[in-house]
Amino acid sequence: MEYSRRQKILDPILNILFPRRCLHCGSSFTDGLSNVVCRGCFDSIPSYENPVCDHCGVSLPPGAFEGAVERRCGDCGKEAYFLDHVRSFGPYGGALRLAHHAFKFDGMERLRADLAPPMAALEGDAFWSDAKVLVPVPQSPERERERGYNPASLLAGEIAEITSCPCRPLLRKVRATEPQMSLKREERMKNPKGAYQVAGAGAVPDKIVLVDDVFTTGSTLEECARVLKKAGAHWVGALVFGRTPRY
């Protein structure tokens, strides 16, 4: 609260002394996400609308799944997955990528207040029906100490406040993994295997929504879903901010 008061006082002065310039469109701005992107660019991010692929959340043209047994895009194919449904806010590029990068890699954790609402807006999708709990994808203790926070946990907490769906840390990371962005696709698929466990000994809810920042190959979310289903969950979906090109 104190930070917000100081911010309201200082921001107009700082905007005059040090004009902010949007990293996406290049225009100077006063309303936006920190000094990263202007509000106009962020609000114009194209969001994925139904119909979407059940496994990665990418939009497809109307009628794309007509007559299909499973709602899958060409990338995800007909493989068997532990994830039952995924919703992603939008494609990982442009203003979305800039905002996410600042949030996750540049220490701008307060941007969660901007990134979470468009994710929470996907609550209207049928896959939210009867969801018992939001579960953030955990980081290793070492990574969290290094970064100072877990982006997925911050997003899950914000979404829980907006939607009133409880948030619980049902998973823990028991093995450090290589950063996914540094690996080739084949390596990414193997990297998360055996890295997660259910935290605690309590009962696992039957319907769970995982929360993470980005979906690329889906291997991390798949491993988390596998662990939760093995522990007793019947349905596991996921909610992510961005979906990167898979190949």
What's the CATH architecture name of the largest domain?
A: 3-Layer(aba) Sandwich
Task: Count all strands and give the number.
Answer: 10
Query: Radius of gyration in whole Å, from Cα?
Result: 19 Å
The low-pLDDT segments are none
Oligomer: single chain
Strand order of the largest sheet: 5-10-9-6
Sheet of most strands: 4 strands, parallel
Count the domains. 2
Proportion of strand residues: 15-25%
CATH fold label of the largest domain: Rossmann fold
Helix count equals: 8
- Mean pLDDT comes to 87
Quickly name the level 1 CATH class of the largest domain: Alpha Beta
Structural class: alpha/beta
Task: State the helical fraction.
Answer: 25-40%
Give the CA-based shape: globular
Secondary-structure element order, as H and E?
Answer: HEEEEHEHHEHHEHEEHE
Give the terminus-to-terminus CA distance. Answer: 43 Å
Characterization of the model:
The chain has 247 residues and is α/β, with parallel strands linked by helices. It folds into 2 domains: 1-44, no CATH class; 46-243, Rossmann fold. Helix content is 32%, strand content 17%. It has 8 helices and 10 strands. The strands form 4 sheets. Strands 5-10-9-6 form a 4-stranded parallel beta sheet. Strands 1-2 form a two-stranded antiparallel sheet. It has a two-stranded antiparallel sheet with strand order 3-4. Helix 4 (112-120) crosses helix 6 (151-163). It starts with a helix and ends with a strand.
What are the salient characteristics of this protein?
Rossmann fold; alpha/beta; single chain; 8 helices; 247 residues; globular; 2 domains; two-stranded antiparallel ribbon; four-stranded parallel β-sheet; 10 strands
